Structure prediction request, 329 residues.
Amino acid sequence: MKRTTEAVVGATILAGILVVVIGTIWLKGTVFGEEATVIEARFREVGQLQQGNPVVLRGVGIGRVSDIILEPGGEGVIVQMRIRDDVALPEEPVVILSPKSMFGDWQAEIHPRAQFMRYDYAQPRSGSMLPGYALPDMSRLTAVADRIAENLAVVTERVEIAFTEETALNIRRAIENIEAVSTELTKMVNAQQQTLDAVAENLQATTRSLGDAAETVRRAFEQVETALDEGQLNAIIDNVRSSAENVDAVTASLAEMSDELREILTTAESAFSTLDEVARRINAGDGTLGQLLQDPDLYGDIVETNLQLRQLLEDIRENPRRYINIRLF
Prediction:
């Protein structure tokens, strides 16, 4: 009987040890009879994630969390996961830690990054490591909700302080002023519309005038083309050429006349010089004319002689026999 009891106790101890070992292996995510692949993901924090929590892909369990390692310096957390070797990961996979139930159980979900672009993932340290992000748990959401409620209470209190009856009256006056301004703006817009209509009519009239001018220019060009076709332009060019030749001939004649005029001016200059010399000598009293002008007595004698000569002629006219005596033999 004693040996039987010892055997039962030994078997119970061995069974307990076996259960502990198997439980530990199961918690570490070891799958018996299947090959497993170890993948790593980097997180800023892991919330309430623990070893043995499930790893899920599209809602299907593919492995478990095998280890959680804090980086040196505490900048991040590395989570190692053992998943089935036959599982194909999505393109650009990311790992999101989220609560599995309301009782505090967590899980690691593998998703394509394009499905959750807005999350701020922790950047991996190596190329084989996956980026990760941990969703906030209920306690954090509750704390955030409490802060939001406190902020709303403060905002409500400030709104109650700011929004008084006087504020309401001011808002009503502001609305009335806005309505009056809107009415004035409507009137102004209507007036401007009339002005725009007048401007549009003027533009239409201007457009018609431009059309008429364009038609006139077109007819002028047609006439020019007709003149070109009929040879009138060549005749005009010949006339212009002939006129140019006449102008050249006139220019040559003018050049010859200019030479002659230059000779005449030279002669006139010489005559003026001589006349100037004569005038200078007269003013100086040289010669008979100069003495006549300069000697007042001589001038008086000439006047007296002229008077006596007139008297003599008058006496001869009246008494010719006194001076002329004709005898006939």
About this structure: The two ends are 243 Å apart (CA to CA). Strands lie at 36-43, 54-57, 60-70, 77-84, 93-99, 106-112, 130-134.
